[in-house]
């Protein structure tokens, strides 16, 4: 424990802790992991969200009302030990108002410090903590994160969430805290500590403080980012290092001896070696040794994967590269190093898993609105402002699992922005410039709310700040993609009580375009040539896909249209004529009569779903091809939601009576995916959808729109007899250029099932 813990602090504790330690009034279960330098807190609470409720209405298309929804949330916070006393006081003051009717407070403790300070914990919280084995907690925490969150790995890790645990084990867990513990995890209940070392994060912090004079762990890491090993280390290419041993796989820039120049360069004074170079050398020395040691233990225990945890990693790219080098070099690529995005929380999470209030069978999703990046700092302006990290997980409403038809190499995102500076800058700048428009639409959705201006200002401030942070530290939330940037925006809007900014826009467009549905299907039916009829159905989906409020090229057109409503015929004229940029229409047409059942993930409200998707679905059903139509369960931009689609159907029945028959005989099933994203990550889908997909024996998966078919899943293949079709209009110049096309070009891409 840091002896400075009892010193008076100049920071305003309430300001420092009030945001990370929030929702404590509802908290009933706590866990704490006190290490030699850092404290990790965990607690369970419930949070109230505002949601829009859509239901059928006899007088109008559907009725929209607001209501509150209560959801469980898991909170995890990491802070330096010097703030432990204040954090415990802060927790005590906010939970003491709990009544006996709300049940007792649970408190679990792990880590060496939690045993040492057991009396302090009881004195502060008023509960005798249940003490738990530290390594066991780390193992349980790692298994929990990998099983219930599909986006945990910093690198590629395709373990199936939820049901199938066999693919996960065995693996080596290397937990780098103050020291290093190495465990072999053979199953959820079978693990063994096989080794370790005293040289870990505490070593880096302690020696770093002595070598640089910096107090904070983060400050020492920042110095290391600016330094060069060659300033202090002897490299292989130098004369004393022996030269380049390429025949042995040792390139000249590998370290031959850490800090050797401080001893051998007699003409140099100690102050000639910069703090930045000292920090860099220290980081590499410790990381290299941990990497090589991990490889040896993995080889001894027949593990093909090594998962690194502990707060030493904290998303630092140089650390991960250095640790990975030893494993990749010595194993020649046969052992895979993996880094969890929330490695610093494992012990606290594992301790918290002992709580009776946590449903361990549920999946949880990260709340990007309030989870910080790896090393994001608190908002205090105090000179004592030290790093603080938070992770918040919201329980998913329904049972979910990984889509079982994914091939092992499945990655949802088409483009990785983490290391692509130009692409990252484009998307961050694009989203920053569109923030004012997003805020304006959100404000109009609640124009009569008394605090709307305050919440809008907070949204803009937080989102713009988050984008600026990602510009500087793109790895803060794992591999950066457009999907994550968009999801972050949706989470922030939802957290600030803007559950569906486009709700009124969607309703207006749905009402408007329903007037044209009967004429649209009549026109399609009038085409006697079967192939021409299908081509018109495809063009209808593509024309409808133009109605995308998330694309600036389209909103500029909307702004110039009469009453902001673009005519469907005008959209059809805008899209590329055949041959399309990617034109597999002939191939899919030739195979259509071989499909038994089609699953379609639809995109936008209004013209897209009403004049594009529904006529397309009708044509499939008329040819005895069953259809599963999937919409988001929660709002995202102007995407149609499941509840809106269900509310639309009675009116659709009146205009096209066939649809009611299709619904009644279950040749058409409408369902939802647990998502509030304009993109699609098939690593988490509702179990109900998987069961429907299997029961219907779907052999064609259709993904519509840029988010689901281009930003994500563009080159994805599936297995077990499932082809995939991606349909989208390119409504962004950057994407069009990436695909060697131009604005409003068309993608109609068929990927046949992957071979076993």
Write a structural description:
There is one protein chain. With 756 residues, the protein is an alpha/beta fold. The protein folds into four domains: 3-147 and 346-396, no CATH class; 171-227 and 274-340, ATPase, nucleotide binding domain (Nucleotidyltransferase, domain 5, 2-Layer Sandwich); 421-495, AF1104-like (Up-down Bundle), CATH 1.20.1700; 503-751, Rossmann fold (3-Layer(aba) Sandwich). The chain has 26 helices and 23 strands. The strands form five sheets. Strands 5-4-1-2-3-14-13 form a seven-stranded mixed beta sheet. A seven-stranded mixed beta sheet has the order 16-23-22-21-17-18-19, with helices on both faces. Strands 8-7-6-11-12 form a five-stranded mixed beta sheet, sandwiched between helices. The protein starts with 12 loop residues before the first helix and ends in a 5-residue tail after the last strand. Mean pLDDT is 85; it is low at 1-11, 154-165 and 374-386.
- Broad structural category: alpha/beta
Uncertain ranges: 1-11, 154-165, 374-386
CATH homology-level superfamily of the largest domain: Uncharacterised protein PF01937, DUF89, domain 3
**Helix residue percentage:** 25-40%
List the SSEs and their pairings.
Layout: H1 13-17, E1 29-34, E2 38-56, E3 62-80, H2 84-95, E4 106-110, H3 112-116, H4 118-125, E5 130-131, H5 134-148, E6 171-176, E7 180-185, E8 191-197, H6 201-212, H7 217-226, E9 234-235, E10 255-257, H8 261-264, H9 275-300, E11 305-309, H10 317-331, E12 336-339, H11 346-352, E13 364-366, E14 389-395, E15 400-401, H12 421-445, H13 452-472, H14 482-495, H15 503-514, H16 517-525, H17 530-544, H18 552-560, H19 568-574, E16 582-583, H20 585-591, E17 597-601, H21 607-622, E18 626-632, H22 642-655, H23 658-664, E19 668-673, E20 685-686, H24 687-696, E21 700-704, H25 706-711, E22 723-729, H26 733-738, E23 746-751
Helix pairs in contact: 5-11, 6-9, 7-9, 9-10, 12-13, 13-14, 17-19, 17-21
Catalytic activity: (R)-4'-phospho-S-sulfopantetheine + H2O = (R)-S-sulfopantetheine + phosphate; (R)-pantothenate + ATP = (R)-4'-phosphopantothenate + ADP + H(+)
Subunit structure: Homodimer. Interacts with PKM.
Subcellular location: Cytoplasm
């Amino acid at each position: 424990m840091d002896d400075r813990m009892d010193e008076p602090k100049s920071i305003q504790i309430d300001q420092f802790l009030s945001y990370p330690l929030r929702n404590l009034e509802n908290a009933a279960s706590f866990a704490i992991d006190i290490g030699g330098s850092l404290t990790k807190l965990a607690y369970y609470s419930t949070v109230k969200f505002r949601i829009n409720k859509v239901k059928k209405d006899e007088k109008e298309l559907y009725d929209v009302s607001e209501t509150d929804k209560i959801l469980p949330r898991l909170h995890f916070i990491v802070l330096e030990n010097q703030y432990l006393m204040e954090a415990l006081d802060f927790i005590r003051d906010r939970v003491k108002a709990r009544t006996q009717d709300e049940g007792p407070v649970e408190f679990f403790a792990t880590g060496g410090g939690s045993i040492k300070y057991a009396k302090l914990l009881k004195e502060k919280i008023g509960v005798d903590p249940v003490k738990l084995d530290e390594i066991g907690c780390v193992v349980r925490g790692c298994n929990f994160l990998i099983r219930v969150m599909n986006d945990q790995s910093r690198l590629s890790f395709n373990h199936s969430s939820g049901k199938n645990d066999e693919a996960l084990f065995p693996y080596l867990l290397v937990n780098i805290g103050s020291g290093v513990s190495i465990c072999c995890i053979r199953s959820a209940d079978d693990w063994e500590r096989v080794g370790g070392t005293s040289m870990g994060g505490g070593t880096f912090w302690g020696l770093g403080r002595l070598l640089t004079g910096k107090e904070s762990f983060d400050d020492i890491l920042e110095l290391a980012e600016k330094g060069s090993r060659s300033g202090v280390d002897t490299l292989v290419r130098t004369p004393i290092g022996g030269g380049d041993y390429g025949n042995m796989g040792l390139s000249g820039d590998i370290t031959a001896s850490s800090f050797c120049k401080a001893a051998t360069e007699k003409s140099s004074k100690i102050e000639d070696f910069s703090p930045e170079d000292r920090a860099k050398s220290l980081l590499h020395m410790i990381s290299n040794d941990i990497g090589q040691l991990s490889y040896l233990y993995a080889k001894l225990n027949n593990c093909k994967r090594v998962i690194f945890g502990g707060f030493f990693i904290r998303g630092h790219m140089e650390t991960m590269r250095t640790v990975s080098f030893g494993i990749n070099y010595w194993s020649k690529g046969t052992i895979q190093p993996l880094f969890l995005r929330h490695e610093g929380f494992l012990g606290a999470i594992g301790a918290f898993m002992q709580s009776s209030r946590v449903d361990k069978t549920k999946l949880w999703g990260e709340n990007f609105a309030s989870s910080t990046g790896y090393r994001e700092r608190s908002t205090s302006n105090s000179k004592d402002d030290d790093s603080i990290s938070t992770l918040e997980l919201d329980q998913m409403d329904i049972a979910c699992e990984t889509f079982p038809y994914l091939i092992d190499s499945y990655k949802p995102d088409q483009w990785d922005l983490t290391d692509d500076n130009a692409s990252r800058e484009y998307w961050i700048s694009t989203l920053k410039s569109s923030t004012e428009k997003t805020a304006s639409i959100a404000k109009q959705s609640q124009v009569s709310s008394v605090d709307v201006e305050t919440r809008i200002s907070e949204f803009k401030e937080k989102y713009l700040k988050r984008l600026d942070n990602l510009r500087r530290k793109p790895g803060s939330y794992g591999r950066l993609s457009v999907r994550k940037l968009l999801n972050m925006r949706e989470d922030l809007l939802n957290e600030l009580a803007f559950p569906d900014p486009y709700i009124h826009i969607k309703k207006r467009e749905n009402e408007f375009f329903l007037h044209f549905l009967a004429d649209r299907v009549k026109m399609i039916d009038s085409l006697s040539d079967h192939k021409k009829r299908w081509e018109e159905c495809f063009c209808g989906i593509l024309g409808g896909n133009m109605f995308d409020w998330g694309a600036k090229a389209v909103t500029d057109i909307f702004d110039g249209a009469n009453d902001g409503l673009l005519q469907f015929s005008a959209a059809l004229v805008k899209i590329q004529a055949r041959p399309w940029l990617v034109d597999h229409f002939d191939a899919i047409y030739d195979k259509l009569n071989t499909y038994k059942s089609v699953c379609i993930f639809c995109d936008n409200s209004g013209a897209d779903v009403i004049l594009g998707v529904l006529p397309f679905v009708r044509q499939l059903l008329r040819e005895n091809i069953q259809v599963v139509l999937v919409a988001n369960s929660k709002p995202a931009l102007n995407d149609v939601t499941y509840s809106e689609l269900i509310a639309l159907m009675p009116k659709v029945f009146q205009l096209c009576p066939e649809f009611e028959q299709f619904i009644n005989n279950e040749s058409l099933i409408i369902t939802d995916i647990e998502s509030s994203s304009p993109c699609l990550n098939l690593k988490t889908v509702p179990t109900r959808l998987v069961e429907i997909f299997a029961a219907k024996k779907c052999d064609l998966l259709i993904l519509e729109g840029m988010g689901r078919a281009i930003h994500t899943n563009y080159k994805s293949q599936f297995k077990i007899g499932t082809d995939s079709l991606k349909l989208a209009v390119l409504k962004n110049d950057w994407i069009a250029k990436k695909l060697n096309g131009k604005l409003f070009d068309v993608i109609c891409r068929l990927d046949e099932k992957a071979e076993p």
